[in-house]
């Protein structure tokens, strides 16, 4: 074969070699993807939704394994700071002081939203009078539920509760307050609301993920509080709506700033969220006492916290893919479980922020 033909043969082989190298590279990357495992911890508020998401996502992407453990917002954020997890979840986002401790940087992504409700164990003691057309939920005025958690109203047949619920036979039964024992974003959101509507609460107790409760018994996580409410006649406690819904616990209609008694529905919660403006720099914001006439008063986003930089390129891409799936396809599970789907505007904000995750 002439030198010219040999040269042409080599030239013809070059595209084939490039294709083979590309196939080999893709195969290697696919091999890496098969081994991708992500670990997250944090808030119990979104845990039922995360459980559904991770199951659905794994069915569609069997090469990606994502594990999530609900240990409370405080513990989740701390593990993110310590670098022992790939992501965390928090119902209060992350403070600037906490973020400053993370050398790899942090990005806060609102991933879902929901309501915090006052669930109680009075059925069937609270019954509807046949002469009065009553709502199905027990009505609790703003200062009444503050005073219940302050320990100032201690019995279910208290005149102030009775006045808000004409026609209801209230039992002569002690009120047993149930609260969280772990560092909790749910607690922080609830106590921020109480501080906003009660100067006495703000001065005596204040707001935070862990506070000095004046009365009551404690349970760990939303699931622990829910279990105690179920077990104790006369109990009342604050939990994420989904936990009350799944366990068929009645929830109170709470008086909002406009003086209306509002139950947590997709419509009343969505009205509250419309008033929450997420800043462009960190996508973290709260509304502690919404003004809308039909707004449910205790609502929050729940944030997924990622690092800004990941040393493992495949892990970074797997997490970005999951978040992008969660804010589109994953939102379809929200209403069914009792959460509120993100608005189109918030979805766009999250998609933009996800692009900042670097390798």
From TrEMBL:
Protein name as catalogued: Phosphate-binding protein
Superkingdom of origin organism: Bacteria
Homology family: Belongs to the PstS family.
Signal peptide span: 1-27
Organism: Nostoc cf. edaphicum LEGE 07299
Positions of the PBP domain: 37-327
Gene3D superfamilies recorded: Periplasmic binding protein-like II (3.40.190.10)
Alphabetical keyword list: Phosphate transport, Signal, Transport
